[in-house]
Amino acid sequence: MKKIAFLLFIFAISTFAKEITLGVVPQQSPLKLSKKWNQITKYLQEETGINIVFKTEKSIPDFERVLYSGAYDIAYMNPYHFIVANKEQKYQAFTRADKNIEGILLSKDKNFSLDATYLEGKTFLFPAPNAFAATLLTKFEFRTLYNFDIDKKAKVLYVNSHDSVYKGVARGVGDIGGGIVRTYNNFQDKNDKDKIFIVYKTKAYPSHPIAAHPRLDNEVVLKLQKAFLNMPDELKKILSIKNFIITDSKEYEVIKKVKAN
If one looks up domain 103-201 in CATH, what number appears? Predict the structure, then answer.
């Protein structure tokens, strides 16, 4: 009996001690993200009793490679990332911010126009090729709504993060830059921010999901889901999220048509 009790105790300790990695898409610098998300992981650990460790990468393409290899146990990713991660590794979405996501374009030029003669030859800055709202949505809508193929009729530069886009447009590296409202609101460089403004918004789509790799037990996922749903307002404010809601993988089927076109 004592041996069985001892083995159960060892099993419980090892289960608690096992790390669960939370991967976060690097829309901002790893340093900025770590300051925010380490507070979130501390809360999640206290709430669930699970040892959760924050992870990110130096660029969005690097994050994509790690995510698509299945290295993260749970991950906060953009909607397109989720479509690929679900296909490649069977990640399942379980929560997201209640507000839908929109892509934005920013410029210093107050005479910005959607006319092809204005747009042709301009330099567009984007954080990464597969940044969903900042890149894919704006390119999709310009092709389908305005018959303007940004990749073919303009110059495109990828600069690794949303903050780098905003700085690049403000400092004249590019004429137009893609981002999202949340990261633009969080952009802190006042000298740069005062020089740029939003000139275009896309249609709204389901926002970034938090998804779990299938190796996680459903009981663990439900604990994490509950913790996100009950997150205190002061922590949600750090992430610029008002509320988390329950989601599932089916909600993101609508994203497939954006990449397909």
Answer: 3.40.190.10
